[in-house]
Backbone:
């Protein structure tokens, strides 16, 4: 169901319009290729309880993901695979009702209760770094749930929590995982989870089959 930005929004276009908005005043935008952007968003959603901040998906000729971050955050110095758009750069911003393709639409609409809350630049930079060096793995836990998650080398080697990437002990095994290599061969591994995610069932309902 479409969500309104609310009366306090100072920059959102109305209705079902798409408006070119210059960065640098209300927000800057981090432009990322579609694949890397979706992977970074998956990590961000896991770290923010599915409230990463506003994200635009422009699915036209060269699909891009745009993360809206606070202006002048300094994130441009730490953007693997991304480009900062600020003063002099324009982003096609969807109106309040545009939540589906074709064309630019909200992949994550702004929070209607906090319309000016933006993506945390430090979390975004961390998510982009992790996404660059990560791959999708499948995990089956003892409860029978199965889910997919982006995992880095330390996570696949069982040295870091598969959910939050922490290396702080205690880390405990829960279930079995598999990863597909560059030639399509599947390899098993033993995922570990920190106490917090182990107690929550290791696998949330997100992505469960």
Residues:
């Amino acid at each position: 169901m479409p969500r309104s930005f609310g009366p306090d929004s100072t920059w959102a276009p109305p209705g079902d319009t798409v408006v070119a908005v210059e960065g640098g005043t209300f927000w800057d935008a981090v432009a990322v290729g579609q694949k890397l952007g979706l992977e970074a968003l998956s990590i961000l959603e896991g770290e923010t309880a599915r409230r990463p901040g506003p994200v635009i998906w422009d699915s036209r000729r060269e699909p891009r993901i745009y993360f809206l971050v606070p202006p002048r955050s300094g994130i441009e110095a730490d953007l693997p695979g991304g480009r900062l758009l600020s003063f002099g750069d324009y982003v096609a911003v969807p109106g309040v009702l545009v939540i589906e393709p074709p064309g630019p639409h909200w992949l994550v609409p702004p929070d209607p209760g906090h319309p000016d809350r933006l993506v945390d630049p430090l979390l975004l930079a961390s998510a982009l770094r992790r996404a660059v060096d990560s791959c999708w793995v499948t995990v089956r836990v003892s409860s029978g749930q199965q889910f997919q998650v982006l995992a880095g080398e330390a996570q696949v080697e069982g040295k870091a929590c598969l959910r939050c990437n922490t290396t702080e002990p205690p880390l405990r095994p829960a279930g079995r995982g598999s990863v597909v290599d560059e030639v399509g061969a599947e390899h098993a591994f033993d995922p570990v989870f920190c106490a917090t995610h182990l107690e929550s069932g290791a696998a949330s309902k997100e992505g469960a089959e």
